[in-house]
Design a protein that fits this description.
Layout lengths: L13 H60 L3 H16 L2 E4 L11 E8 L5 E6 L1 E4 L2 E4 L1 E7 L5
Parallel strand pairs: 2-6
Antiparallel strand pairs: 1-4, 3-6, 4-5
Helix pairs in contact: 1-2
Length: 152
């Protein structure tokens, strides 16, 4: 069998090379656009889930506060179990209680309800717990803040 002759590839002319370069640039741009779309879509899905979670958690915070108050006045072990289960579930979703008692007042995480006699700018009493969800404040702590001059 005779060997096939190979023809060396011919060098494309300038116009063909320019067209190939333009097509390659468009292909790379389209690929980058697609990768950016995938990233943006994944980010939007994640943000949607976080928003939905935040909405549900915000609604459950009232129930958690009611359970806290009920547990203060009742030593029912069943109530304590339910309270602990709800706290565990919410913590798994990223809920954290805002520590406020005896700390310096922080307007980003706390809401001052009243000024009372005490060390200036220090939280004297927590009236209602505050919470963050994935590091975002969903409910500020309601507090009484110390002041040299007691408000009237």
């Amino acid at each position: 069998m005779p060997a096939k002759k190979t023809v060396p590839p011919s060098k494309p002319d300038a116009k063909t090379e320019t067209t190939m370069d333009q097509l390659e640039a468009k292909w790379k741009r389209a690929l980058a656009d697609y990768q950016n779309l995938e990233k943006r879509t994944a980010k939007e899905k994640h943000e949607f889930v976080q928003f939905a979670t935040a909405s549900l958690v915000s609604k459950l915070l009232g129930v958690l506060d009611d359970l806290d108050r009920a547990q203060t006045h009742s030593q029912d072990p069943g109530l304590k179990l339910i309270h602990n289960q709800l706290q565990t579930i919410l913590k798994e979703e990223g809920l954290e209680e805002i520590e406020a008692q005896d700390l310096t007042f922080n307007p980003e995480t706390m809401e001052a309800i009243d000024r009372v006699k005490g060390k200036p700018n220090q939280v004297i009493q927590v009236l209602s717990k505050g919470y963050t969800l994935n590091s975002k404040v969903v409910k500020p702590a309601k507090v009484n803040v110390g002041s040299d001059n007691q408000s009237s």
